[in-house]
Design a protein that fits this description.
The protein is built from 24 helices and four strands. It has 616 residues and is mainly alpha-helical. It has two domains: 393 residues, no CATH class; 118 residues. The radius of gyration is 26 Å and the shape is globular.
Length: 616
Amino acid sequence: MLVDADVVDEPVDEPVEEAPPRRLKRPSAAFVLEVLLVLASPVVLFFVLRLRAMAPLIKPDPAMSTIYIIDPRDFFARYSLALATSSGTREGARVGFLVPARLSYLLFGAMRGFFVFRYVLALVAVVPSYMLLRRLYNRAAGAIAVIIVMSSPVLVNAWGTDYTDSAVVSYLVGGLACLAMPCRDQRRPAWLAIAGGLFTAAVWANIDAAPLVGVTMVVYFAICLLRTRRRFLLDALVLAGAAVVVTGGLMLASGWLLGPFDFIGPTRKALTYLDSSVVVKQYYSTNPRWILLRPYLLVPAAVVGAWGAVFVRRLRAVPTPQLLIGLSCVAQIAVFVYLQFLNHAEVLEEYYYSSSLWPVVCLTTAITVAALAKPLNGHPVARWLPAGLVLAVPLVYELDPNVSPFGWVAKGLVIAAIVVAAAAVGRLIAWKAGPVIAGAAAAVAVVVVVGLSLVLTVAPYEVHAPLWGVSTDPLPRFAGTLGGTVSDLIDQYRVATELPKFVGNSTYPDEQLLMWYPPGDRARILELIGMYHAAYNSLPGWPTSLTPQAAGVLLRRRPAEILVFDSVDFSATLQALAPYEPTLLRATVLKSGTFTAHAWLVWLGAYGHTSLKSGA
């Protein structure tokens, strides 16, 4: 991003543009090594930090996306009519995530495809972040950005499931870094096109990213009007053009890979449904006290405070990239606060949505830490000390990953205030003290800002009495993202992705499948039942005795198939279904590692359109 010389009347930290080379030169060995290290950084940090490869499934929502990755056409065929009134197939419209995820599945299979796609998502986040901080400061600052992104418990947790925030967080990090990238005028359209494409992909991955992208665009063009007005129209055209091209490409890819071409219409219908009074009453907390029990939501405010303390001066004197990222962080927090407390959208209380704030939080943290570290930049070795300290913080945490539970009052607010104070003191000492003291203060400030931000993020939640008017949605488990183990989670995912092969494809449209399983087994097999939308497509009660409620569901839905899990007496299950002319199609034991589930697929002749499903 360029700043017009007549706009800034104080020294700024903008990088000096080098004169264009007269002729192309072969890349040096150092440059090639740097590129390779950046590309390898997600894999290296995955093992160094012992990142949790998958996140625990505490809601069925991620698995509801997995089915669109594994077998989207069959799911649309089975449920498009049945789920039309509830907008239940809205997950299939989140093509910014589903299109690349399904492509990865088709190329590499379920498990390898999952991790290949996560590696790509990590690169989307770390490569632009590294380049931004490298151009603003130096290579060591670029390394700081990479480590902060890769060690963020919120981002790692998001990458760990098939929920769409796994793509949104990466797209938003990469898009904002490209938007703020300092470069020559002739290269500006290319960076803007990449930013616009990533932002568009984020919106079509989950529409909840739209307010964040929109308010970021407002900040960008406000700064553009003040500092580079002559580029306003061209920048707007490039960003709009990128949005159109990416949207069109996703439409074609959606039709090819998923089935439906139109994902905009279903997205609009989903928004209308989710904004209905019935849904809002079911999921939205009317009692705002819930926020006091979520210390991780203090992190964005603390990071903004630290950014303000470091860059406090007249806004005209703040370098444009740092100003854009900091003000975007302020604006994104403000719009989510508005949506949560003034517009009944659960964007903060539901961590799947609030995770979308962390891309700008991570970049704001990175530029703040890099600015605090400037007293050490004069020495070729000492400049790497802050990056080492940023890496040491999660490594030390992993030695004893136990943080005492606390809420906002009063411990959380005190910790957030210390983060801001440390940044302010570190910056003040850098202005006033000699190089040795300034360097020591910078190192301390870096550790405090990064370390206490991590403490706020991973802190468990205080045990408390039930609160009236508060949603019972499960809380995130960020504490285990660093140094966590996932063998059981991988086993469950592997089994779940094999389930559609066992079920087979439908033989006619609206050949619905419902599930039946012991109620106490729900948490254990959540990945499996989530594939077919869990509670909505499940029969109530034990799969050995048909209750009146279950009979009512069968009469209303008229399913052709029943998928039974873990019945203690399958003969009793068939007897309970006798009025519906049941026929066992096939049975299996779904097993991987320590995870085992017994499954039976039953055809109901009373509702099926054929006497017996083909292949029985």
